[in-house]
UniProtKB/TrEMBL annotation:
Organism superkingdom: Bacteria
Keywords: Signal
Signal peptide residue numbers: 1-22
Species of origin: Shouchella lonarensis
UniProt-recorded name of the protein: DUF4363 family protein
C-alpha cells in the first residue's frame, strides 16, 4: 500500500513539474529530427533548391512514417492526417516549384508537429 502511494505521489509530482506536458517527456532524437528537417526544408525552399527539397521531403516522410505510431498515441487523428495531406500537397507544390505554397505547407507541418508534441 505504501509503495502504491509513493508511486502515485511521484507520478503526480512529475506531471506537476512538467506542466502536464507529456510530449516533451517522450520526445526523442528521432522526433527532434522531424522538426529539424522542416527547418532545413524551409531554408532550401527559400534558396529554390528544388532537387534537395524533394530529397529532404522523402527523408522526412520516411522518418515520419517511422514515428507515426507515437504521434497516434500522443496526438489526435486530425493532426497526423493533416500532416499526411500537407506532405502530399508539398510534393505537388515542389514539382511546380511554388515556393510560397511550399513554405505554407511546411509551416502547417511544423504547427501540427508542435501541436502533437506539446498539447
Amino acid at each position: 500500500m505504501k509503495k502504491t502511494r509513493y508511486l502515485l505521489g511521484a507520478l503526480f509530482l512529475i506531471l506537476f513539474l512538467s506542466g502536464c506536458n507529456v510530449g516533451d517527456l517522450f520526445k526523442t532524437d528521432r522526433d527532434e529530427a522531424l522538426f529539424t528537417a522542416v527547418t532545413e526544408m524551409k531554408q532550401h525552399v527559400e534558396k529554390e533548391e528544388w532537387m534537395t527539397v524533394r530529397a529532404k521531403m522523402d527523408t522526412f516522410q520516411t522518418n515520419y512514417d517511422n514515428q507515426k505510431w507515437k504521434m497516434q498515441l500522443l496526438g489526435e487523428l486530425e493532426d497526423y492526417h493533416d500532416i499526411e495531406l500537407e506532405i502530399k500537397h508539398f510534393y505537388i507544390s515542389a514539382e511546380e516549384e511554388d515556393a510560397f505554397e511550399c513554405l505554407i505547407g511546411l509551416e502547417q507541418i511544423a504547427y501540427r508537429l508542435h501541436t502533437i508534441y506539446t498539447l
